Each structure stands twice: as C-alpha cells, then as structure tokens.
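Run: sequence + cobalamin -> complex structure.
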Amino acid sequence: MRSTTKILLTSVFGPFGVDDEFGRKENIVELFHNQVTREQGLFSLRFHHQSFGLYMIAENLRADTTVLDFPSQKRFVKQIAKNDYDYIGISFIVPNFLKARRMAELVRKHAPHAKIVLGGHGTSIEEIEKKIPCDHVCRGEGVRFMRELLGEDVQRPIAHPIVPAAFDKRLLGIPLRGDGVVLMPGVGCTNGCRFCATSHYFQRQYTPFFTTGREIFDFCERVERERGCADFFVMDENFLKHRRRAEELLVEMERRNKHYTFSIFSSAETVRDVGVEFMARLGVTFIWLGMEGVASGYEKNQGVDFRRLVAQLRGAGIVVLGSVILFTERHTKENIRRDIDFAIETGPDFIQFMQLGPMPGTALYKDFRAQGLLCDDVPYAEWHGQHRLWFKHPNFTPAESEEYLRAAFRRAWDELGCSLARLVETNLNGWLSTRNASDARLVERHKFFAALCRDYYPALHVIRRFAHNRLERDYAATLAARFDEAFGRPDAVQRGRIAAALALAAVEALRIRTIGNLRQPTTIVTRVRRDLARAESPAGVEILTGAAPAES
Ligand code: B12
Ligand code: SF4
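>> structure
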C-alpha cells in the first residue's frame, strides 16, 4: 500500500565534543575514543556509528521516510524548510536534551505544520513534554510506536535494514575499510540492574526483532549476498541470554557451511552458561562484558571468576572489553582502587571505566532523587559519565571523580600497554588456538584470524616506535617476535606496509599534537522509499549524502 505521509527522523546536531551552548567537550560522539581508549592518544580506536534505531524505524514504515544523521543546525533547518514533512522525529539521549529542545524550536519556526515526535532515551526525563515542544513522545521501542501513530499494521513482520556497523574508521591515522554491518536482534534486557538505563527504558523487558536463529541467519546471508560482508556488530544488550536463538543460529551456519563473525554485548553469567567453545564456533570475535566491579557485587556476576573467563576468551581469539563502574555507593577511596586493580589484573583487551550515573527512569535515579542526592544545578549536558558526578557521593567530590576516572584510564594504559597491542595479541591467540582444528567452523575461523594477523601486524611496529612507556615498547616487540615465529619474517609487501603505517602514524601524531584529537562525524542523509519498493522489504534505500562533517 502506498503512503503519502512524509517523515523525517533525525539525530541531534553537531558539533559534538566541544564546549558550547548545547554540549560539553568531554561528551565525544565516538564510542571507543569517548569511554574506552580515550587516554591512549595515537593508539585510540577511532570510528563513528550511525543512529541505528532510526534506520530500523525507517525501514519498517510504509511512509516515505528520510533519516538525517549528524546534521549541523544549518543543515537541519535546510532539510525541514525545503521539505513538507508531516512528522519530524527527533532522537536524543539525556545529555543531548538542549540540542533536542533547540531542534524542536526550529521545527516550530521553520516547519510549523509538522508534528514533532520525540524518541530515544532522553524521553525518560520526567515530564519531557513540558520541557520540549512536541506532539508525541515515544518511550521505548519505536517501530511499533510509529506504526501505531501512523495507523499502520503494528503486527507486520519486522524488516531489518542494512546499515554499516561503523564509519570514518581510523587506526593510527590510517583509514580502514568499513566492512561490518550492524545486526539488531532486539532491544532491552530483563536483568534490570539498578543503574541500567537501557533495561529500565524498555521496562525491563526484551523486545525481539528476530525471534529465531533462522531469522538472524537469513539476515546474515542476505547481507553477505548483497554486500559481500560476513562480519556483524550485534546491537543487543545481552545477545547470548537468548541461548536457544544463538544455538539455532549456529545450527543454520553449520547446515549451510557458513562462517560469520559477531561482536556482541553479554553479561558474564550468560558467557559462563554457554561456554567459550560455543562462542568460538558461533564466530564470536569480540565481547563487551559487564564486569562492573567487585565492590558492587551484582547478582549477575556472582560466582564468576573473571580472571579465568577473560583468559579463556582471549585465548580463543575473542577480544574482551570489560566495563567497570566507578563511584558506586559502596566505593571509598580505598576500595575503588581494588576495583581498578581488579579490572587491570583480569587483563582484558579494553577497559571501559564509566562513572555511576543515575539516569532518569532507572531504579538508581528514583532512589537518589528520593534521598536528595541529585545535584540539581548540574545541567543535563553534563550527565554523561565521562567527566564529573552529578550526584552527591559520600566519599568523592565532583573534582575528585574527574581525577580518579582519568587516573584509572591512564593506569590501565600504563600497566597493560595499549589496547591495540592487546587486540593484536588476541588475534594471534585465535590463530594459534585453531591451528589444528578439524571442526569446519573453526577451520574457517583460523583463516579469518590469519587475515586479521596479516592486516594488524604493521601496527606492532608502529606501537614499538611510538610507545608511551617501556612496558608498551617491550610488549609490542615481544609480540612482533611471536608473529615472526608464527608466520615467518615479513616479506617485501609486509615491509612496505610497515613503512607506510609508520609514515601515516607520524603524520597522525603530529596532527594530534598540533590540531587536536577530535573528529566530527559526517552528515548522512538516507531516504527510505517504501512506496518505490515491492510491497514488503527490502525498501528502496537511497543514500543522498555523505557530506562534510557537521558545520556550525
Ligand atoms: C550506539 C550507542 C552510542 C553511539 C551513538 C551514535 C549516534 N548516532 O548517536 C555512541 C557510541 C557515539 C554513543 C555515545 C554516547 N552514548 Co550511547 N549508546 C549507544 C548504544 C550502545 C546503542 C544504541 C542503539 O543503537 N541501540 C539499538 C536501537 C535499535 O535502539 P535505540 O537506539 O534505543 O532506538 C530504539 C528506541 O529507543 C526508539 N527510538 C530511538 N530514537 C527514536 C526517535 C523517534 C522519533 C522514535 C519514535 C523512537 C526512537 O526506537 C528505536 C527502535 O526501537 C546505547 C545502549 C543500547 N544498547 O541501546 C547507548 C546509550 C544510548 N548511550 C548512552 C550514553 C549516556 C552515551 C554517552 C553520553 C556516553 C558516554 N559518556 O560516552 C555518549 C554521548 C555522545 C554524544 N555526544 O551524543 C546511554 C543513554 C542514557 C540516557 N538515558 O540518555 C545509553 C542508553 C547507554 C546506557 N545504558 O547508559 N552511544
Ligand atoms: S545485564 Fe547489562 S544490559 Fe542487562 S540490565 Fe544489567 S547492565 Fe543492563
């Protein structure tokens, strides 16, 4: 059925990560550079992510829908003034409250007949409809909400868009191919950890987009067929918790002799339940693991031996990102150090340190609000977890929280070496652990690691050359020697790649020293024209721009 309704779905405007009227310099819009490798300078992993939820919604409406990602204010005004949109949906998170409000004001001014729909985690702010001009507010899953709003069939099957997992990818100043695709099996998590914004936002329920492993497999196969891509970034809070679905996926892969690779988020209990061997056969190559911290004692982590688990995962070629929450109510100046020590000792490839943040809608927020612990004078723009606390902590001042956080990141880098070197080591482990494999999945995995090892080998020479301390230099040198032992001395091609990587890294190091280390995402405009396609998915997708980074 054809729809004449015109919709714009937009993320908030840039620039990001600068101190201005709408945002703060600490709130960088890059996953790793913001909250994982932020102190690792040249060795930080750099990439941006599109606003996945908006593409998921757009793909599933019959209306003519455009997604505008990372506009500038000027670009946004141009977009809404020249098009006659019936609905303009603004997606935002709590720290981007001011940007969302500004955009809503701009809609009222430049497209007064358009209905404003607010969506995303920012809508958990109490009485948001009184704080931002709007006509509708979506709290929770957006596909069903928009279908209902537009009078479409809510039960229609979900179609999954093909969206790159990341873009503007760079390592050591070297642009990388963006060859992964995002896979969104569902939203929410039933665990309901007290601080967790996502779990509470989706009412502690899991809403699947894919209910069976077969559906996931079919999507992967389609992506492989249409894009030649077999690598997936799985945007699901706890992918392995839905064990049956994961098992079905593996069965399908085995049956069709396919090898796909997956980067996932999962809690430790589920990893322990399914086992590392299963994960390796499934094709997991990266895991974001909630370690949270010993002092916090979360139920999901009871009885988990993290040291062993991390070693097992890395031994099987699975890169581990351990996330740790600092400044929980139980943290004192003494025991916080224990949690940081613990995180470092477990030896993951990456560590995310995040400040405890009472986000609206969470149980933590309700408790803190009731106890009068929230600092009402701290604007939402500072509620992001990478600068200072916005609640009164009994043992840390806001300034101390900034200092301790930076020191934690710094110590992890000083004592473990850069994450990039650790990741390369894990790839080598993966290659070694599958060397004598007979299982077809693992034989394919071995080939996958061989290619990664070849691609990442030059990075070891760059790390050795630009190491920030002796440990890091020795670590990279030892690793390079292990590579040479495993693969033989570098041939002429590899030597050329090493020389090129060293030159590009030198330019990047100079750029960081002179210009700074902030990168703005490209503005992307994508039009999804359901009415141009056949009755059901895939929709006609037209990427209209991949323009210059957000202008002012
Ligand atoms: C990818 C991601 C990012 C990307 C964002 C890229 C981008 N284009 O903006 C990056 C890495 C840059 C990022 C950064 C940050 N993020 Co972030 N991020 C995520 C993450 C992991 C996934 C989001 C996602 O794609 N989910 C999958 C899609 C399908 O779900 P969804 O986005 O929720 O969308 C659905 C609904 O919410 C709804 N919906 C969303 N928008 C709209 C709009 C309309 C109109 C409608 C109707 C519906 C709707 O419909 C969608 C489909 O159901 C979430 C955690 C999570 N698992 O969700 C955190 C999360 C959104 N991030 C969060 C935070 C706090 C941040 C940072 C401040 C963290 C920090 N200090 O580093 C920064 C902010 C950077 C900045 N300057 O804006 C919080 C938000 C908390 C809150 N209450 O606001 C989350 C929930 C993580 C958490 N648990 O705390 N993030
Ligand atoms: S397990 Fe992870 S995603 Fe689930 S509620 Fe806890 S912190 Fe949130």
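>> summary
The two ends are 40 Å apart (CA to CA). The first strand starts at residue 6 and ends at 10.
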